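User: For a benchmark we're assembling, each entry needs the component sequences followed by a predicted structure for the full assembly. Here are entry 17's components. Please fill in the structure.
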Amino acid sequence: MYDVVVVVGGPAGLSAAVQARTRNKSVLVVSGDVRDNPLWKARLVNNYLGMPGLSGQEMLESFQKHAREMGVEEINGRVLNIMPASSSFYLGIGSQVEEARAVILATGVVRAAQLPGEAEYLGRGVSYCATCDGMLYRGKEVAVLGMAADAPEEANYLQELGCKVTYISDRQPEGLRKDIAFRRGFKRQVVGGQSVEAVEVDGERLPCAGVFILRPSLAPVQLLPGLALEGGYIAVDRNMATNLPGVFAAGDCTGTPLQVSKAVGEGLVAGHRAAEYIDQMDKS
Amino acid sequence: MATIHLTKEAFDKAISSGTAMVDFWASWCGPCKMLAPVIDDLAGKYEGKALVGKVNVDDEPELAARFGVMSIPTVIFFKDGVEVDRKVGVMPAAAYTAVLDG
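Assistant: Structure for entry 17:
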């Protein structure tokens, strides 16, 4: 069990992780592909105090290095759900489970509005986890809607299991197996009867039994049912505490301005308050 | 009473009368591992009131296919052998007890 698990290591998450380490808490950061972080794509960031002229990639690499030097542990993966237990939380990460006493959400803005048919067919052909559900689709046609940088790897995994994969995204993916069909598409919806029968891509119907929707991160309310939102962002107080005891949030997922300084500052507060929350639990 | 592991042969008889709750799972599924203690706990709490069972979809692919289980974990509720509800993904215990008590 970790004291603190941070969900996604961008500026807010890494800041929170470093601060929790300064309070001597054990910290695990769960992140997908770093290239999914919007900061990674920023060519030049000139408004971070005292450190102008760096690219987003340089900043992220520097933040990661700092966190590693502080003893923050990292794993690569996508958090699929978070379940509160009596005095801790269980986090499902692909095929792994980790336990934490406090959770810090720093998922960034999860842009994806749900696709038409997505919620309706969840569990009836729509899946967010190739490792979990791939085996159930062996020998069948599946569509991978690749929105995360590591989605091609998951598509390859499905193909290797014996699924017949079509990869759909708005641009040519890197690292996709040559025997996987690629279809460029923007407007996508899931259609079917009792279960999924096809995806429609820009009006064209592609029959399939399963649709794997792979985003960089799941929306916080999907991760943690009951989490309160405000204007589409996670509702927090001055302590970066959410409405759920032991769950804190920081960075872009709590609202505008979507800036590195703000994320780092909020991460600091969340890291300290999460550490205090754990200390309180130890006393009581 | 511990959770009952159901096989193809035993399934229909086991759920034929009263309330049953069956968790479809596999060992390679992280969220399923998360749900396991919740299911075991409910098996104890509902002893004598409902059957709480598990189906390993690796061992029993026919059962998974028969009930159209396409994502795990999936928990299916039966009354006298007829499906009355299902919950896909990991949910807090209250989501399951609401159906069992309903």
